[in-house]
Design goal:
Largest sheet: none
Distance between the termini: 29 Å
Low-confidence stretches: none
Number of strands: 0
Mean pLDDT: 86
Helix content: 55-70%
Number of helices: 5
């Protein structure tokens, strides 16, 4: 998968998670506390921010599968169905029905 497509998928995932978080009137700090209860709020917030925004001259940090599952669940989304929605947004990853012979 091309790197730019991977980045677009991760950005779309964060967009959907952020929209759900805002709809629930959950702050970034609320989300950070749910995801990283053993860390201070500033440290937990920074971990989330690194997934969302470029860090200096570097692109946002890549989201791993475990983080994706934790983030979606923390805002009340089903990871599997959310991923299906994301994949349908991009022609390169869209699921096409099998053709019948």
């Amino acid at each position: 998968m091309p790197e730019d497509l991977r980045s677009m998928i991760e950005q779309e995932a964060m967009h959907i998670i952020d929209e759900r978080r805002k709809a629930q009137k959950m702050t970034i700090d609320d989300l950070a506390a749910r995801l990283y209860p053993d860390k201070t709020i500033p440290a937990a917030r920074m971990m989330i921010q690194r997934l969302r925004t470029p860090q200096g001259s570097k692109p946002p940090r890549k989201m791993d599968l475990g983080e994706y599952v934790e983030l979606t669940r923390a805002v009340g989304l089903d990871p599997s169905s959310t991923l299906t929605v994301i994949m349908q947004k991009f022609e390169e990853t869209r699921l096409h029905p099998a053709k019948k012979n």
